[in-house]
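Exercise 3.2. Students should predict the tertiary structure of the chain below and write it as structure tokens, then compare their answer with the key that follows.

Predict this chain's 3D structure.
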Amino acid sequence: MAVPLSFALNRMARASIVLSLLTLVAFGLLAIWFSKKGEEILLEKDSPKIVVDEIAGFLLANFLSPLAFKPVVAAFLLFRFFDIMKVAPASRAERLPGGVGVVMDDLVSGLYTFLTLRLLFFLGLL
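Answer key:
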């Protein structure tokens, strides 16, 4: 689900960077709300059944990338790496209360991925 949404967001960015940034922020805020509600319903902290946080993180990770196979695979692998490793401050962000903690560590991982991809594009490696 994250990949097609990411492609749609990146296509939107071609037409309007402002609208795509607003959409990205809105999705992040909705992800926080849904994550909080998910925790309340499931009665568990950061349940693996809640995946909207991963989608929000990947949308940021792959933001403004070309709509091609290599960049999306690189974004996915890098995002999973950073999400699993919980490189600081992602590890601290995860401890924030409620939906904010559920989503924020994924957004930090997404930001690391976004920046790494930009570097790979700049160096001509992607």
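Discussion points: The longest helix spans residues 17-42. Residues 2-122 form one domain.
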